[in-house]
Amino acid sequence: MPRDGHYINRTNWLRAAVLGANDGIVSTASLLVGVAAAGMTRDGVLLAGVAGLTAGALSMAAGEFVSVSAQSDVEAADLERERVALREDPDYELGELADGLAARGVETGLAREVAQQMTDHDALGAHAREELGLFGSQGNANPLQAAGASALAFALGAGMPLAGAALAPAGQIGWVVVGVALVALAGLGTLGARLGGAPVWPSVKRVLFWGAVAMAVTSLVGRLFGVAV
């Protein structure tokens, strides 16, 4: 068991890291395989890969920043509404908190007593947890931190197939990129499962299947366009 007691406490950062790295591996490998299948030169393939890595990392950073900012705005607005409600009608809010505890199995009289103790200790925190589902630092997500982590994870993931393309023998770029990407995805699936305390094989199968599908489709597209040209 992890030192913090539960694997669920890792879900926020683990989801972002796995998403960023997986997206970096799959999207960049697929791009490289597609342009290689179209008959592009090594320099052209590498240029496309660097452009894809740069654009993808910035896109991940921007998307994460916008989404986390939007989430933070919603959470802040809800917390402000709770703060106003506690100030204007504390008795109603106390009853609402007690009813919520009773609905979860606490005896009615005890629920009222517990609700009063929770209110005396930290009224806003109690309502944030019980009504809004916000726990600990969940409502304090840092958009810049999330953006940086996502961009870094994407760049690290994308760098692996790109390195494979740079080191591959002439005429074998596509196959080498596919091999490197599949190995990287298997490693990512294994690491993500172990960090999350989940079974390894289902995680590995998922990332390998969807990664292989993406690369196969883009390879087909590249071949079709290569023939057309």
The helicity comes to over 70%
Which overall shape is indicated by the principal axes computed on the Cα atoms?
Answer: elongated
The biggest sheet, with number of strands, parallel, antiparallel or mixed sense and barrel status, is: none
| Tally of helical runs | 7
By secondary-structure content and strand pairing, the structural class works out as mainly alpha
Radius of gyration: 24 Å
User: First CA to last CA: what distance?
Assistant: 57 Å
The fraction of residues in strands falls at under 5%
Count of individual beta strands: 0
Low-confidence stretches: none
What's the structural domain tally? 1
Summarize the structure.
The chain is an all-alpha fold and 229 residues long. It is 83% helix and 0% strand. The protein has one domain.
Explained architecture:
The protein is mainly alpha-helical and 229 residues long. The chain has one domain. It contains seven helices and no strands. The chain has helices at 11-37, 42-88, 90-103, 108-130, 143-167, 173-196, 200-228. Helix 2 (42-88) packs across helix 4 (108-130) and helix 3 crosses helix 4 (108-130). The longest helix is centred in the N-terminal third of the chain and has 47 residues, at 42-88. The protein starts with 10 loop residues before the first helix and ends with a helix.
